[in-house]
Write a structure and sequence with these properties.
The complex is a heterotrimer.
Chain A: H1 7-29, H2 38-46, E1 57-59, H3 65-68, H4 71-90, H5 100-109, H6 114-141, H7 150-172, H8 177-190, H9 194-199, H10 208-217, H11 224-255, H12 265-269, H13 289-292, E2 308-310, H14 311-336, H15 361-367, H16 371-392, H17 408-433, H18 436-439, H19 445-450, H20 453-472, H21 475-499
Chain B: H1 2-6, H2 22-44, E1 57-61, E2 79-84, E3 87-92, E4 103-105, E5 108-110, E6 117-119, E7 124-126, E8 135-141, E9 144-153
Antiparallel strand pairs in B: 1-9, 2-3, 3-8, 4-5, 5-6, 6-7, 8-9
Chain C: H1 2-27, H2 31-37, E1 40-41, E2 44-45, E3 53-55, E4 60-62, H3 94-97, H4 100-103, H5 112-116, H6 148-160, E5 168-169, E6 172-173, H7 192-195, H8 201-211, H9 216-220, H10 226-237, H11 243-255, H12 296-305, H13 307-310, H14 323-335, H15 348-354, H16 365-372, H17 374-377, H18 398-403, H19 406-415, H20 434-448, H21 467-482, H22 497-502, H23 505-514, H24 536-547
Antiparallel strand pairs in C: 1-2, 3-4, 5-6
Classes of the chains: A mainly alpha, B alpha+beta, C mainly alpha.
């Protein structure tokens, strides 16, 4: 019971508070004030839950264009774009076979900006796939997967698979011919282990293929259940999974001490350019307790962190720049190229040719030799191989350098030549002369499953890379060769599937030669 | 609990967890068991006990004048029915490779998706298809027949017309 | 470090520019906006917004009226070009039925090319304006359509009796008011076939005439003879408001296409079922040899003209039709688009066809014959042959009709010739009923001009002769055309089960003896340059030989 404060002054105080409220709200949100000094810049970052993902200071090596080419950020940007546009599309999309197609038509024709948003979604998804693959290639070629970053490499592979999964599940949703037959093929690829169990005559008791397909489709035909499942995966399960993996991925980058850089990065960089904001003017006067338990990154007393610059604003300009560049590319493509929408799904007449999205056409080319090896076997071997790389290559030489390690760029050039030549040669034989079945009509299926152009190409790569390991006496050299070969194979097979396959999956030099239909 | 606190170890190097913490182990074990049980239960969910797709058995009336070697496909089904001197038979039109619907071609069937070709009796002639097109069970006589898409019969099984 | 700032600046400005471009495109340059801006109402410029007709029953959400604004519900007095014109008066209000139900096309689209379906991946493009009434076929199945000649004959009679004086028909006539100025006018008969009319119209008309002393009733109406009245009624039944489509359908019936093609379950099955031929997806058709644009109409015309050229293994013969006929057939085929319209919405005619199995062709013998038989046996029963087929028998041949009993012809129609191209019309679901078969036989007798032969011997099987002797004769004189085992080469198969079952001995004896004048079957009762005259006993032995092919009854 305080009687010293008269009600009049409480009212005045109330009014005063009201007047100053906007300013207080602003300061409550932006506690640090204008980030002009080292301290406020640092505060700006670690007082903000989103920005605190970044280190307060960034090494100048990490900011070089040639280090990352912005690919990781571009992939993230593409994901964010698909996230936003995807939520917008969900306002109108109806996941049922009767309505799905019409709802896409409505998005096209009567939803203001609907077609534009759908196009952006489509292109951002494509760009996400491209950038994720390129990002992985960058990490591989700069040997950035090495200790302590092995785990993050695995997470990255999880992200790659999830990204492809998102793309594939999104493909079914319009319920047009393209969608329906791509999903039919996809679901049957999931069933392809039957090719082996059938040949061994054990399908009746052991049928992993049938179970996978059933799990995916929820029925024995591509229908309502499949649509609902794919929708669930596409809008809910996979984005959540991707976000979780992304969080770990980013967190690991910081835990692993930022981006990889060569041992002699500081020497290579030289003095900072004039237009950077100044580095710490004063060396720290005490050790940081929290920082002390971060492995190997204890700032020493009386020693300034060399060659780092404040993340605010240098890193943020770089990130925002890449982000807007990605937006620009997506919007630009979306302006001029419409996302496809074919006829309403017709379960009795397949598309001819029925082509999956372009990044799966390399796989489809393999599948056209053997469903099991092309659709399950070889991808599984590739994924396992990729995952093992950081554990097999435990060397130090060349970390952080493009094409670092024994052999270097000349080896990569040679691998490009070998990989392309092997792929083209085997493809040419298969296209020109057919394969085992045409030569020996009664050959057992198991032989074709394991001896087909896809497995032959993969074996050539493997033999070549083993030879490289011996030649350079280095696992890194073998990995460089193998990865380069696979990249070449992926590109060539994708190109063949995209441009040179026509009706009935026959070879044509150009779509102009396709039979008129 | 009291055991560990009695030990005068370093703050940074505490006594390792006792090897036989019965209570702890059994509680963790119980948790794992219940989660595994729940997982097994949930694993049953994605497969309905009865599929909602329409019945695989259907009746079909063959056209009176169906030339031998020319297939008749009832609307909405992926089956071709044939009639020749020896009788009536049905061949599935679902490609054994990746499930596209094959088209009849002069010398048999061809699949538009990956170029598999089949002979007129369904045997694989070319391409990636691992198995022949299955022959389906047909029963009945005269004009109307019952086809069961789930039941396969050995190639060459024909029902007397 | 300024490089990144530049990147951010220029990327953002570029994005901004693109978005501004998209906004301009979206809000100014859309086709329908431009269209609507060019139109005006009586009270000023037209309010620019997307318009549509939603017909939930027809599952239609048709935005066609965003450009064809004059046809939008509730829009009146719009001026500014052809798009401002209202729909011409039709039986169905577009505001209730939508547009695509009749005209096809892509109702959800808002750009012209998309909406008209002239884009890849839209399987049901608009029905061309010149075939507009083909759209009626989505729901309707007009019943009782006669042949072309009956149709034009009926029309001629309608005009001869000057019915057009008082009645309107397809936009003509109806100038005279029988009730006098301001009095009652004659009903419009354009849709009499659908709406129905008073069955006792003739008696009522006659009574009116007798009651009045002068005026229109006295001047314009007179006695109508019974056959003319029948023809008039047949004609009136075809007035459905879609005159051109009915004309096309009549031609289809005249040419006998249904002898090979089923429509709604009725017809032969030599050729593909045509019930949904108008719904074919142009994207699935081969246009390699089709002149002109890749439209369904062009494909159908080209295919009707030369089937084998468009579909390589087509068995359909070339009929040598003229352009007008092909165009009419195309018209009718485009109308064969009975979609999956909910049964509760079926019009009466469709219900009559699909539920009560009424015929879409008229019930008289002439129409039945033309619709189902004339395609192979010729319009006048003269027989026909097409390249690569054996000839179809001349079934109105006087020698045939003189030898065959009605029972024989009826049995033949009913049972067909198994294994040959003649289907069993009596057995199939889409086949003929007994009274229809009888009417066809009657029609044959009429065009052949030969009454049913009187059989002197009551027994059907009386021939008792030496089959072995007949066999030698057969090998010598018959096997050349009928095949060594009677399997049929140039001439019909004689070992056919149902032929031998249906034919009595008298028929066989008579046919061999008389031959068929005008065909390659000679009279074997008389001598010719290639064979001597066979004696009755020899002919009987031949018949006995033919009978030996019959399956022995246990």
């Amino acid at each position: 019971m305080s009687n010293e404060t008269p009600p009049k002054s409480a009212l005045r105080e109330f009014l005063g508070n009201l007047v100053s409220a906007p300013g207080r709200i602003y300061r409550a949100a932006f506690r640090t004030g204008t980030p002009t000094t080292d301290r406020t810049r640092s505060n700006f970052i670690f007082q903000n839950v989103f920005l605190h993902l970044h280190a307060v200071r960034t090494h100048r090596w990490s900011l070089r264009w040639s280090t990352t080419m912005g690919l990781g950020i571009a992939a993230l940007a593409a994901f964010l774009i698909t996230l936003v546009t995807g939520i917008l599309l969900m306002c109108y999309y109806k996941p049922s076979p009767e309505d799905a197609y019409n709802s896409i038509k409505d998005i096209h024709f009567i939803v203001p900006t609907g077609r534009f948003i759908r196009n952006i979604h489509r292109w951002a998804a494509n760009i996400m796939v491209i950038t994720v693959i390129l990002h992985m290639a960058r990490v591989f070629f700069t040997a950035a997967y090495r200790k302590p970053r092995e785990f993050n490499w695995l997470i990255g592979m999880g992200l790659l698979v999830t990204t492809l999964g998102l793309s594939f599940t999104g493909y079914l949703l319009p319920w047009d011919q393209l969608a329906y037959w791509a999903i039919t093929i996809g679901a049957n690829i999931a069933q392809s282990p039957r090719e082996v169990t059938d040949a061994l005559n054990i399908t009746a008791s052991f049928d992993p293929g049938g179970m996978q397909r059933q799990l995916l489709l929820g029925s024995d035909v591509v229908g309502e259940e499949a649509l609902i499942r794919f929708n669930l995966l596409h809008v809910m399960v996979l984005p959540l999974l991707l976000s979780a993996l992304l969080a770990v991925h980013f967190w690991r980058i910081r835990k692993d001490g930022g981006l990889t850089r060569p041992e002699d990065a500081d020497k290579l960089l030289g003095p900072p350019p004039a237009d950077t904001y100044p580095v710490f003017t004063e060396a720290p006067q005490k050790t940081y307790h929290l920082a002390a338990i971060v492995r190997g990154r204890t700032p020493a007393v009386n020693q300034a962190p060399e060659n780092t610059i404040p993340s605010m604003p240098h890193l943020f300009y770089a990130e925002l720049g890449v982000f807007m560049l990605t937006v620009l590319v997506c919007v630009g493509l979306a302006m001029f190229l419409n996302a496809p929408l074919k006829e309403l799904a017709n379960p009795s007449v397949p598309e001819n040719p029925a082509k999956a999205p372009w990044y799966f056409l390399g796989l489809q080319e393999l599948v056209s030799f053997s469903a099991f090896m092309g659709g399950t076997g070889i991808p599984a071997i590739v994924l396992i191989g990729l995952g093992l790389i950081p554990f097999l290559d435990r060397e130090q030489r060349g970390t952080g350098e493009w094409f670092g390690g024994p052999g270097g760029w000349p080896l990569v050039k040679q691998a490009i030549a070998v990989g392309s030549a092997a792929t083209l040669l085997v493809e040419t034989i298969a296209i020109r002369f057919g394969w085992l079945r045409e030569w020996f009509p009664h050959i057992p299926q198991l032989v074709i499953t394991f001896v087909n152009p896809g497995t032959i190409i993969a074996s050539i790569y493997a033999v070549y890379s083993i030879w490289l390991v011996k030649r350079y006496n280095s696992a890194r050299a073998g990995a460089l060769g193998l990865f380069t070969c696979f990249l070449c194979g992926f590109l060539i097979l994708t190109a063949i599937g995209t441009y040179f396959r026509g009706p009935n999956w026959d070879f044509y030099w150009s779509p102009a030669q396709w039979p008129k239909h | 609990m009291s055991e560990t606190s009695n030990h005068a170890g370093s703050r940074l190097d505490p006594e390792p967890i006792p090897r036989r913490d019965f209570l702890g182990l059994s509680s963790l074990g119980a948790m794992c068991a219940s989660l595994i049980f729940a997982g097994v239960g949930i694993f049953r969910l994605p497969k309905a006990a009865v599929l909602s797709s329409p019945s695989k058995k259907f009746k079909v009336a063959l056209p009176e004048s169906l030339p031998a070697g020319q297939g008749f496909t009832p609307p909405g089904r992926s089956v071709a029915l044939f009639r020749d001197e020896e009788g009536v038979y049905a061949i599935s039109l679902v490609c054994t490779h990746l499930g596209c619907i094959v088209k009849s071609a002069p010398e048999g069937f061809e699949c538009p998706c990956h170029g598999s070709r089949f002979a007129a009796d369904g045997a694989v002639a070319k391409g990636p298809a691992p198995r022949a097109l299955p022959w389906l069970q047909v029963s009945g006589a005269g004009v109307e027949y019952l086809v069961d898409e789930d039941a396969t019969v050995p190639p060459g099984t024909k029902v007397k017309a | 470090m300024n490089k990144n700032k530049h990147l951010l600046l220029w990327s953002s400005l570029g994005t901004l520019a693109l978005l501004a471009g998209a906004a301009v495109q979206e809000n100014i340059f859309r086709e329908w906006r431009q269209t609507q801006k060019a139109l005006a109402t009586e009270s000023g410029p037209l309010d620019v917004h997307l318009r549509q007709v939603v017909a939930p029953k027809m599952q239609a959400a048709d935005r066609c009226v965003s450009c064809h604004v004059g046809m939008a519900a509730g829009e009146q007095g719009i001026s500014g070009g052809p798009l401002a014109a209202p729909h011409k008066p039709v039986g169905h209000d577009p505001a209730e039925f939508g547009c695509t139900v009749c005209h096809a096309g892509q109702g959800r689209a808002t750009d012209k090319a998309d909406a008209h379906g002239d884009v890849p991946f839209w399987p049901d493009p608009m029905i061309p304006a010149r075939y507009a009434y083909a759209g009626c076929g989505t729901c309707h199945a007009y019943v009782g359509i006669p042949t072309e000649s009956q149709l034009t004959g009926g029309q001629a009679i309608f005009e001869r009796y000057d019915c057009l004086a008082c009645h309107r028909l397809d936009g003509r006539g109806g100038t005279l008011r029988p009730g006098g100025a301001g009095g009652m006018e004659g009903p419009d008969l354009s849709a009499a076939g659908l709406a129905g009319y008073d069955r006792r119209w003739y008696e009522k008309h006659l009574k009116k005439r007798e009651e009045s002393s002068d005026g229109p009733w006295r001047i314009s109406f007179g006695k109508i003879e019974e056959p003319d009245r029948t023809a008039l009624e047949t004609f009136l039944a075809t007035r459905t408001g879609a005159a051109k489509l009915v004309e096309a359908k009549a031609l289809f019936h005249t040419l006998g296409c249904q002898g090979c093609h089923k429509i709604s379950g009725v017809g032969g099955d030599e050729g593909p079922d045509m019930s949904r031929v108008g719904l074919k997806d142009p994207g699935q058709l081969n246009f390699a040899h089709v002149p002109g644009k890749p439209t369904l109409a062009n494909w159908l015309s080209a295919h009707t003209r030369e089937p084998g050229k468009i579909v390589p293994d087509s068995k359909m013969p070339v009929f040598g039709l003229n352009d007008a006929e092909i165009d009419l057939l195309t018209y009718y085929m485009l109308s064969l688009r009975r979609g999956d319209v909910s049964e509760s919405l079926w019009p009466k005619d469709r219900l009559r066809v699909e539920r009560f199995k009424e015929r879409e062709f008229a019930a008289d013998g002439a129409t039945l014959y033309a619709t189902l038989c004339s395609g192979c046996h010729g319009p006048n029963g003269e027989g026909r042959r097409f390249p690569e087929t054996y000839p179809f028998p001349a079934i109105a041949n006087p020698d045939f009709l003189a030898a065959a009993t009605d029972q024989f012809i009826q049995d033949t129609i009913k049972m067909g010739r198994p294994g040959r191209r003649m289907p069993a019309w009596g057995e199939n679901e889409g086949g003929l009923r007994d009274e229809e078969i009888a009417r066809i036989v009657g029609h044959l007798r009429r065009i052949g001009g030969v009454p049913e032969p009187k059989r002197p011997i009551a027994e059907r099987r009386w021939v008792k002769a030496d089959a072995a002797a007949g066999g030698k004769l057969y090998a010598a004189y018959c096997a050349g055309c009928h095949g060594a085992k009677g399997e049929g080469l140039e001439a019909p198969a004689l070992n056919n089960k149902s032929l031998l079952a249906a034919a009595d001995d008298a028929y066989l004896v008579e046919t061999i003896g008389r031959g068929r004048r005008g065909t390659t079957m000679q009279s074997f009762g008389e001598a010719s340059t290639v064979h001597p005259a066979l004696s009755p006993a020899e002919i009987e032995s031949l018949v006995a030989y033919l009978r030996s092919w019959e399956e022995k009854k246990p």
